[in-house]
Amino acid sequence: MKKLFTTAIIIASSLGYGQEKLENSLLWEISGKDIKTSYLYGTIHATCNNELNSNVKKALQETKNLYLELDMDDSNMQAKMMSQTMMPEGKTIKNLTSEEEYKILDEFFTKEAGMSIAMLNNMKPMILSSMLIPKMLDCPMKSVEAGLMSQVKTENEEVYGLETIEDQFAAFDAIPYKDQVKDLVRLAKEGMQKSKDNFQNLLKIYQSENIEKLLDETSKEENGIMASYLDDFLTKRNKNWIDKITNASKKERSFFGVGAAHLAGEDGVINLLRKEGYTVKAVK
């Protein structure tokens, strides 16, 4: 159960819209002004293969610190995550759904997660949706973040977070529970195969490194409720990260790994850094 909760929380891909056409690349070099040359890399939180290519390994060797969305090296991470998974007292899946919807959810989670919805009745609906991510893969689930951490540990580098667990959950909690549960019921009605097909499509786009297409696809309604809450889940977070990225890069050459769909778009991290006067170019 704890493993499912951890999986649920680190799923955090994001959405947005592009302006200037960006090259197909997950790895970007940040330079100029008063910073030490650093790197920005688009990750995916659930995949079959998290092996890093030679350019990424080289960039990690050239930098002193690794920054992820969260400090995944924090020994208290699991406890902090668990403390954020439940809805406030008085809010339950049962009282947010009709009798028919509750039955649909119960049958769906019994089949796909091996547990009755009654066992999960107090959990936030988006966490329940995210618990199903491993079912969308035809392999044991890995994350690119884990691959990055494994690489830097051999070099005794520090791992930091661009935001806290509380920051990340604030983005989830900005979405009303009634809308979250509505999306959960939709997922259950459509069945796991459709969600799996959608996720596999996103995974192929990620592997092609087409970050603009990835952003366009993830912002389609059929790929989840977050498409309706772009400002909270994407824009605000991206803007909050810019000062942290630049301040860290002023001190040391650093490597920043964030969900790939954070990169593109008018309010994507690449464009926001360029607006601040920094040079951000693709590493091919």
UniProtKB/TrEMBL annotation:
Pfam families: TraB_PrgY_gumN
Key words, A-Z: Glycoprotein, Hydrolase, Membrane, Metal-binding, Metalloprotease, Protease, Signal, Transmembrane, Transmembrane helix
Superkingdom classification of source: Bacteria
Subcellular location: Membrane
Protein's UniProt keywords contain Repressor: no
Membrane topology reported for the UniProt record: Single-pass type I membrane protein
InterPro entries: TIKI1/2-like, TraB/PrgY/GumN_fam
Obligatory cofactor(s): Co(2+); Mn(2+)
Name recorded for this polypeptide: TraB/GumN family protein
